[in-house]
Amino acid sequence: MRNTMHYSGIITNYSCSAACRHCMFASSPRSGKAFITGETAERIVQRLKSAGVRSMHIGGGEPFLNFDALCALLKEMQRAGIGVDYIETNAFWCRDEEETLRRLRIIRSLGADTVMASVDPFHIEFVPLERPIRLVQALRKLGMDYFIWQDRFLERLLPLDLKTTHTREELAALLGEDYIEDTAQEYGVKVNGRALAIAKKLYVRQPAEKLATAEPCAHLLSGQHCHVDLYEKVVPSGCPGIAIDMEDFFERRLPVEKYPCAYRLYTGGLKALYEYACGLGFEADPAGYPTRCSLCYAVREWLHKNSPSDDVAPGCFYREMERTMEEE
Hints:
This protein is α/β, with parallel strands linked by helices.
């Protein structure tokens, strides 16, 4: 049976104007300047169309960092008849009303009528709150749809100066010393990507042998909320740093020679990947790991450096994750 996608998205880039503590893809200004091209967008969209995909959302990174690239993707989706569920943005670019309205009119003309604005204690370290508020006001003015992710945080942050970003210390004074961990739990953040640094404070460490179970990671080929990135790779839902070629994903193929990590996870679970890495020289941290995902990431980071393969990618994710784990 061939695969398909539902409630899934397209990653236009891994770079971002922010480096939020919970970011699944560990995006940041340090993640490089690579963006989806018109040619790549055409290939991706045509393959999605042939697989019967009817709509996708668009995210990053931050899609509005390269507005021309975003518009090129929208044009290809419009041409192929693939709908745009919504576009994700942190609204960094909404510096004034005129420019905000101009860009919104353009994306609306290209078939995008819904925008998701990010508002939370993590984003406000990088983007002043007045910008997503300005975005929402402009969307309302144009009669476009929107939702705030997550709007529960908006009221709590309104006492802060809206025109500037805010430090961890300032946010702790307003929200409490444990606001990072509390926000992650309330957010419902899947503790992966940069949020693995938060997991170290949320969970008790356990030995690798206890966490490395044999339960297969069957979701690696699930079409539910996965992403296609600018390198024409499918990133399985909740598993950043794993990459599967689009064609193989749609045909449900995971040959072990091409995908030594993904194949083992899919067929034998984390135990199979852990034993594979140990056979190549990986040594588990004697202090243990807070979660299964933490162990999985540690194994893949080691393999990325010592036994690289195409399914442990992209490199920008692992480089940024290494910085994050060192800094936290």
